[in-house]
């Protein structure tokens, strides 16, 4: 096991190029199973979740390999089975994204339970409802067996919640189902939009990309394509907060400004001002972070929600940022039951955080943090601890950093390039982590 050892107190400054979107690359890789032609995918983040997805696809019999530092080529003309490897499936949540393509192309998918962040129950019902609406038969024990021996049928269905991955599974299945499928109450996150754009390149026609009603005009055969994954707005938000709490001046290159509007609005409310310079995002250095109250001087809140609301994966990062902002704010994690259960680690470092209920935390900011030994339970909690450690006094050790490596490419190397004092070391002396 490895850990990070961080010396806090150094401003993070310089120019940063964000990686491709983790949650965009994972469905885009899965979509390559929809065709027997070659698919080339660029700007793929080199993270462990992507590696697991590539291994899952290769295990099915497809050719799937890195052809460059961040480029992957997949040719699924040799798929020999539709049963996912159990050990690989339980490593990532995104393994379940192989269900839609396998069901649509081969009429069958045997899905072991997926893995992923343990931040809530993470129901799969919206996926199964979509497959059922498309005409699949479902046998659900611990594993899920999906079959459609006579193929899928275009339909008009309403999701009971705008599930991101269920929308992506439905999009992929419908793209290879002749006829017009309407997906209502669909998710519209940037990665859902990016997947839809790729499916259009492969030969599907999709109306309503970016809205909550999409009509997929599916076909009986999809072609290969060459697709570049959009930049990761969650990583960009993470580095905005890293610069903000350390007082650094940071330029983040080649963003998609439309994907950053809500992040910038909420972070500005927490006192972090940023400017767009074309597609580059500029974080001025030395900002004094002050929380803006609601009109009338009332206490503000930050709450997550389906796009275009504030993204759930930045809730932990917003909470860490808020510990450094003068004032107080309620952080309301509405979508996941357990995401906030990491805040005890920040409290141990000196943050003034009160858990009001499982979904809400009151943060009273501008407390000086001190280095501690902590352990990360999930990807974004790990990033929150990195944010806290980089602005704390003294030394912090963060254990279980494989969680951070799941979602952030070469994070220590890229932080050092901005001036951070961070080392990746063997966690020989098991830290008495909190
Ligand atoms: C691999 C991948 O892409 N993972 C992302 C994907 O997970 P995933 O697709 O699994 O997440 P879902 O969008 O299905 O739902 C996330 C959670 O929010 C709840 N929910 C959802 C919609 C709603 O209106 N109300 C509500 O409470 C769900 O019950 C679930 O508990 O989307 C999540 C929400 O953006 C992100 O945190 C994950 O990083
Ligand atoms: C929750 C996340 O990932 P996953 O759904 O893959 O667990 C995340 O990317 O923050």
UniProtKB/TrEMBL annotation:
InterPro entries for the chain: Enolpyruvate_Tfrase_dom (IPR001986), Enolpyruvate_Tfrase_sf (IPR036968), MurA_subfamily (IPR050068), RNA3'P_cycl/enolpyr_Trfase_a/b (IPR013792), UDP_GlcNAc_COvinyl_MurA (IPR005750)
Alphabetical UniProt keywords: Cell cycle, Cell division, Cell shape, Cell wall biogenesis/degradation, Cytoplasm, Peptidoglycan synthesis, Transferase
Active-site residues per Swiss-Prot or TrEMBL entry: 117 (proton donor)
Domain (Enolpyruvate transferase): residue spans on this chain: 7-415
Localization, UniProt: Cytoplasm
Highest taxon of the lineage: Bacteria
Binding site residues for phosphoenolpyruvate: 22-23
Function, in words: Cell wall formation. Adds enolpyruvyl to UDP-N-acetylglucosamine.
Protein name as it appears in the record: UDP-N-acetylglucosamine 1-carboxyvinyltransferase
Species in which this protein is naturally found: Conexibacter woesei (strain DSM 14684 / CCUG 47730 / CIP 108061 / JCM 11494 / NBRC 100937 / ID131577)
Lineage, broadest ranks: Bacteria, Bacillati, Actinomycetota, Thermoleophilia, Solirubrobacterales
